[in-house]
Amino acid sequence: MAVLLLFLFLAISTVSTAADDAFIGVNIGTDISDMPSPTQVVALLKAQNIRHVRLYDADRSMLLALANSGIEVTVSVPNDQLLGIGQSNATAANWVARNVIAHVPATNITAIAVGSEVLTALPNAAPVLVSALKFIQSALVASNLDRQIKVSTPHASSIILDSFPPSQAFFNSSWKPVMVPLLKFLQSTGSYLMLNVYPYYDYMQSNGVIPLDYALFRPLPPNKEAVDANTLLHYINVFDAIVDAAYFAMSDLNFTNIPIVVTESGWPSKGNSREPDATVENANTYNSNLIRHVQNNTGTPKHPGIAVSTYIYELYNEDLRPGSVSEKNWGLFNSNGEPVYKLHLTGAGTVLANDTTNQTFCVAKEGANPKMLQAALDWACGPGKVECSPLLQGQPCYEPDNVVAHATYAFNAYYQKMAKSPGTCDFKGVATVTTTDPSHGSCIFPGSGGKNGTFINGTSLAPSSNSTTSGCASQYIDSGGSLMSVVIIGVLAMSAVFL
C-alpha cells in the first residue's frame, strides 16, 4: 500500500544502537479535496509536537513551509520517476539538486525514500531499484550530504514469506537478485530497511486465526501469547512479529546489523460492511498502543531495547483515495484539523500530547438524581459564575432540552474554568470526569478545540475567572416548584457545597 505522511527520527545507523530513542513520525498524504495549505499543515504539526514527517514526494511549497521548523523530513522519489532516475546518474543528480540541495539546511531533510513498495507495486522497475539508490547516494556524496541524509526504499511486508514463526521467515526468492545488493547498499551506507507494517491487513486476511487483541496490542494472557518454537520467543502483538520476521529474513541472507524503520503503520477508523473492525475505537486503540510501544523503546523479542522508529499512516483522512471506504479513513485528523479521535497517550511522551487523555471533561453522572442535577445546575449558572447563555432557547447547546444535557454543559464549563482542579468535578456526587468530548453538533464544550481547532491544551473556550453570573439561573429551576430559586441560592451560596 503506497500512501502519504508522518513524522520520524532517522538517525539509527546499526541494529546495535540500542541507546538511540525511537521516534514516532507521520506520513502526509495529499489525496484530499480540501487540502490544507502547507503553512496550515506545518501549524498542525507544530501544535501536535510532530517532529518527524514523511512526504510521498518532494513538493517545493511543502518543503519551503517546513523550513526552519526543526521538523525532520523524509522526502520521496515517486514511483513514476523511478525508471528515469534508475537509468541515469545525471537524472538522479538533477533530482537531488532540485529537491534536496535547494532546500537544505533550512529544511531538515534526513532521508530519501526511493519509490514505494516497488517490488510489489511496480515490479518492472525492480531491476533499476538498486541503481536508483546508488545514483541518489552518489549525488549526496558529491554534495557532502551523505552523512546527514540516508537513502532507502520502503517495502511491503508481503515480500517476506512464511512470516510466522518469525525465525522461519525469508524473502521471496524471486526478489533475491534485488534484495542481496540492496541490503549490501544499506549496510555499506549505514542506512536502514524501510518496512510498511499493517497488522490490520494481516488480521483481516487471517480469517479469524489472528485474534483482534493480538493485532491491537491489547494485553494477552500468557496462554494466548504466540511462541516461536525455534527460539522460544514470546510474541504479544502482530507488529513485533512482522518486524522480527524481517530481521530473520535478513539473517537468512547473512545480514545481521541493518536496523529497521517502519515507514507506514496504522488502522482505519471506518470501513464498509465487509470491514467491521475498521472502527474509531479500534483505530484509536491501535495507534495509541503503537505510539506507546515505540516510545517506550521496548524493541522486539529478537532485539529487545532496539529502537523501531515508526511513521503513522497517516496525518489526514484522504477522501479522494480510490478503493474501499477504509482506504479513505486512515487519518488522525480531518482536513480541517479536527481529530478523527483523541488518542489515549497518558505517560507516552510529548508527541500528539494535545490529543491525549490529558484532555478531560466533566459530565453528569449516569443515573444521577434529577433533582440533585437540577440543584447543581442552578448553582453552576448562578453562584458558580458559569457562562450558561449557550443553554438558552435558540442557542447552540439548548438541545437536547433536558436536565442531564444542560447540567453536563454547566458542570464542564465550571471544571474548565477552574483549570480542572481536584474536586471541581463532583457536585455532591452527581458529576464525573471523562476523556470523551461531550461536544455535539454546533454545541462545542469548553475544553474542546472545536471543529476547526488545533486542540492546543483544549481550554481556549473556558470562561475566565472574572466571568459574571449569566443571569439565566432561574431558567433551570424545577418546574414542579420543589426547588425554589431563593432556597437554591441561599443553600448554594458557598461554593464548596457541591464541590
Automatic annotation (TrEMBL):
Residues 360-445 form the X8 domain. It is found in: Cell membrane. Keywords: Cell membrane, Disulfide bond, Glycoprotein, Glycosidase, GPI-anchor, Hydrolase, Lipoprotein, Membrane, Plant defense, Signal. It holds the Pfam family X8. Coiled coil: none annotated. It is a lipid-anchor; GPI-anchor. Gene3D superfamilies: 1.20.58.1040, Glycosidases. GO terms for cellular component: plasma membrane; plasmodesma; side of membrane. Residues 1-18 form the signal peptide. It is an enzyme of class 3 (hydrolase). Its main location: membrane. Its EC number is 3.2.1.39. One of its GO terms (molecular function) is glucan endo-1,3-beta-D-glucosidase activity. It catalyses: Hydrolysis of (1->3)-beta-D-glucosidic linkages in (1->3)-beta-D-glucans. PROSITE patterns: GLYCOSYL_HYDROL_F17. InterPro entries: GH (IPR017853), Glyco_hydro_17 (IPR000490), Glyco_hydro_17_plant (IPR044965), X8 (IPR012946). Belongs to the glycosyl hydrolase 17 family. This is glucan endo-1,3-beta-D-glucosidase.
